[in-house]
Amino acid sequence: MFTYTIRRLMFAVPTLLVISFVIFALLDLAPNDPLGELPLTIPPEVREQIRAAMGLDQPFLIRYLKWLQQFFVNEPLNIFEQITGLTVGTGERMRVLSWATRSPVVDLIVQRLPQTLWVVGMAYVFGILIAIPVGVISAYRQYSVFDQVGTFITMVGYSVPTFFTGVLLIVIFSSWLQWFPSIYDTNLVVDSWANFVEQMRQMFLPVLVLSLYNASQITRFVRASMLDNLSMDYVRTARAKGVREKTVLLVHVLRNSLIPVVTVIALGVPTIFSGAIITEQIFRVNGLGQLLITAVQGADIPLVQTLTFIFAVLIVLFNLIADVLYGILDPRIRYD
User: Fold this and answer.
1) How far is CA 3 from CA 9, 13, 291, in A?
2) Domains of the chain
3) Which whole number is the average pLDDT over 39-51?
4) In this structure, are residues 303 and 98 in contact, taking their beta carbons and an 8 Å threshold?
C-alpha cells in the first residue's frame, strides 16, 4: 500500500503540472481584458505602465514559470514562516497578487475559506450521515412505504436545482414564518451564546438546501449498491450459517456496498472547498464560490487561476484517497 501511494504521488506531480499549464493557457487566452474597465481618459502610456506592473508585458512562458515559482515555492515558504515564525532567506519574495485588490491571492482564499467550510462542509457531512442509513434501510426494505417515500424525496432533491429549493425555503421560512434570516451575515462574530444561536439560525437554510442535494445523490448510490450485494451468494451463505441478520447487513453487505460509494463521497469532497456557487449567491454567503464569481466577472486572472488549480489538486488528492480506501474496505484488493 505504501509503495502504491508513493508511486501515485509521483505520477500526480506531472499530472498537476500539465493541468496547471492548461489552466494558465486557457485563462491567458480568454478575451477578458483586466484593463477593460478602466476609464478611457487614462493615457496609453499609463495603461502600458499598469500592464507592466501586472506582468502582462512579459512572454507567456515567463509568466507561467513565475506563477509556478510563486505558487509552489514562495507561497509555501510564506505559510511556513507564518506558522513557525522562522524566516527563510530575506523573507521578501513575490507572491501571487490579485489584479483587482493587489492583495495576495492565498490571503483572500484563507479569509473566505471558513465561511465555505462552515456552510458547505457541514452540509456535506449531514448529507452523508443522512444518506447512508436511508440508503441501507431503503434497500433492505425494498418496495416498502419507507423505500417509496425515500426514493421520491431523493429523486426530487436530486432533480430540483438548488436555486429553486433555496428561493422556496426563503419564501417559506424567511418571508412567511420569519424563523430564519434569508441573508448570511459574514461579519457575525461568535463570541457569546446569543451569537452562536444566531450563527446556527443563519446557517440553517443554506445547509438544509445543500444537505438535501448531497443526501439525495449519495442515497441513490448507497441503495443501488446495497441491492446488488443483498442478492449475492455470500449473503445467503452467511444467513444459512446462522449469522445474525444485523451482522450480515451491517458488517458484510454494508462494507462491500461502500466501495463504490467511497468514490462518490471522495470526489465530492473537493466541492466543499470550491464552494456552492449558486447557493452562496442566493444566501449571500461570502465564501469561495462568491469569490470565484467575483474574480471571473472582474477578469482577475491570477485569482481564477489559483482557485481553479487548487480545485484540481484536491480532485487528484481525493482520487488517491479513494483508491487507498478501496484496499481498506475490500481485503481482496491489493496494490503491491
Assistant:
1) 10, 16, 39
2) 20-95 (no CATH), 112-329 (1.10.3720.10)
3) 70
4) yes
From the list 294, 269, 272, 271, the residue with the least C-alpha distance to 281 is: 294
CA distance 95 to 79: 11
Q: How confident is the model at residue 4 (pLDDT cuts 50, 70, 90)?
A: low
- Cβ neighbours of residue 180 under 8 Å, at least 6 residues apart? 173, 174, 201, 202, 204, 205
Query: Band of the pLDDT at 246, cuts 50, 70, 90?
Result: confident
Q: Say which amino acid occupies 81.
A: E
> Are the C-beta atoms of 312 and 16 separated by less than 8 Å?
yes
- What average pLDDT does range 231-235 have in this prediction? 79
Residue type, 325: L
Would you state the pLDDT for residue 332? 61
User: d(Cα 213, Cα 207) in Å, to the nearest integer?
Assistant: 10
For residue 134, what are the CA distances in angstroms to 147, 235, 257, 290, 292? 9, 20, 14, 32, 34
Determine what percent of the chain falls in helix, strand and coil, rounding each to the nearest 5: 75, 0, 25
End-to-end CA distance of the chain: 6
Evaluate if pTM is beyond 0.85: no
Q: Hunting for cell 443501488 — which residue is that?
A: 224
Q: Write the pLDDT tens digit of every residue in 93-148.
A: 777 777 777 788 888 888 888 888 888 888 888 888 988 888 888 888 888 888 88
